[in-house]
Specification:
Elements: E1 5-9, H1 16-27, E2 30-33, H2 35-47, H3 55-61, E3 67-72, E4 75-80, E5 83-84, H4 92-101, H5 105-121, E6 124-128, H6 131-135, E7 141-146, H7 149-162, H8 169-185, E8 198-201, H9 207-216
Parallel strand pairs: 1-6, 1-7, 2-6, 7-8
Antiparallel strand pairs: 3-4, 4-5
Helix pairs in contact: 1-9, 2-4, 4-8, 7-8
The structure holds cytidine-5'-monophosphate.
Main location: cytoplasm
Keywords: ATP-binding, Cytoplasm, Kinase, Nucleotide-binding, Transferase
GO cellular component, one term: cytosol
Length: 222
């Protein structure tokens, strides 16, 4: 059976996960959050006292990491060696660590294998940085989601303050800029728009407007 795939790439905070989740629900297919996989590797490194930038040691412990993905009501849960880590990988420290381990080729090879296997066995909306360019080059629809750095920082600031987490807008902006730099300048699979991707700028748009726009781009046969 041929499964259907939508690739959504873009920088941190562009709204990929919120939008991808809504599309998956609407189409009744699964949402694959690939960032969570890099976050899980970072979590394991941090827990074991390994710097996420320490390529040699990260490579050494990679075979100790088993990542499993399970779905419940279209929601992805991610397991690190059988522990559900879906919630604890959402900290700022893990965001930066994920961006660091993601520059290591051996880490990417392992994550990409997992991602391609998921897309072989189900129709997916997959979000990340290299989905349209590398993981699923034959995806049925490719979206490159962007928003200004100011808008991305202010969305993240709102999200954190709503959760009661104290934070500084200027610090968040700096962290987003640092991650953008890491993601676009790395050697392996840097973040860039696939030639055949449609660029959707979410600045000033509501989530629903973006979801509707993407759904309208899905080829008619699906
Ligand atoms: O999407 P999220 O912010 O959770 O991703 C965390 C980090 O993982 C990103 O900053 C990026 O460096 C890395 N990543 C990646 N390739 C992907 C998904 C995420 O390099 N496909």
């Amino acid at each position: 059976m041929k499964y259907f795939s939508i690739a959504i790439d873009g920088p941190a905070g562009a709204g990929k996960s919120t939008i991808a989740k809504m599309i998956a629900k609407k189409l009744n297919i699964i949402y694959v959050d690939t960032g969570a996989m890099y976050r899980t590797v970072a979590l394991y490194c941090i827990k074991h006292g390994i710097q996420c930038t320490d390529k040699d040691n990260v490579e050494k412990i990679l075979n100790q990491i088993e990542i499993k993905i399970l779905y419940k009501d279209h929601t992805q849960r991610i397991f690190l060696n059988d522990e559900d880590v879906s919630d604890i990988i959402r900290t700022q420290e893990i965001s930066q660590g994920a961006s660091d381990v993601a520059t290591i080729q051996a880490v990417r090879v392992k994550m990409v294998e997992l991602q391609r296997n998921l897309a072989k066995s189900a129709s997916v909306v997959m979000d990340g940085r290299d989905i349209g360019t590398y993981v699923l080059p034959n995806a049925d629809l490719k979206i490159f989601l962007t928003a200004s750095v100011e808008e991305r920082a202010s969305r993240r600031y709102k999200e954190l303050t709503q959760k009661g987490i104290e934070c500084s807008l200027s610090k968040i902006k700096e962290e987003i800029e640092a991650r953008d730099k890491n993601d676009t300048c790395r050697e392996c699979s840097p973040l860039r728009k696939a030639e055949d991707a449609v660029e959707v700028d979410t600045t000033g748009k509501t989530i629903q407007e973006v979801v509707d726009q993407i759904i309208s781009l899905i080829p008619k046969q699906y």
